[in-house]
Amino acid sequence: MPRLMATITGFILVCALAACADLPFGPVKYTNGLLTGTNGMTLYTFDKDVEGSGKSVCNGTCATNWPPLAASADSKSGGDWTVINRDDGSRQWALNGKPLYFWSKDQKPGDVTGDGFNKAWRAVRPEPRPLTGNMSL
Questions:
Q1: Nearest 10 degrees: Cα torsion 101, 74, 126, 121
Q2: What pLDDT digit, counting tens, does each position of 26-67 carry?
Q3: Is 137 within a domain?
Q4: Does the residue 10 lie in any domain?
């Protein structure tokens, strides 16, 4: 009986991992309380972007100074993550409806020099949320 239970548990775990393989996600990580790109550079939101609008108002010179967190052609929205289409035809990741950007003046991972810039740019500091749902097998 223990062997059967171990086999069933292993099968369930493999199926759960396979199901997670296709889940959409933004190419980010959390570093010292900040949301960063996979390159370790801080990500920012822009107060003038309307949450959930699916649009970025940072284009042209603004996007040169604040490069968007690019989404590939095959990136998929899901959960808190959405992919928006920019005015120039490129795609950008948004978290909770807010497009995400890097700051061109940040020189190395951990820099947060854009936080508060023009009282409109915010470093993304996600607050932990409690887990919900049944997490047991």
A1: 10
A2: 789 988 899 999 999 999 999 999 998 999 999 999 999 999
A3: no
A4: no
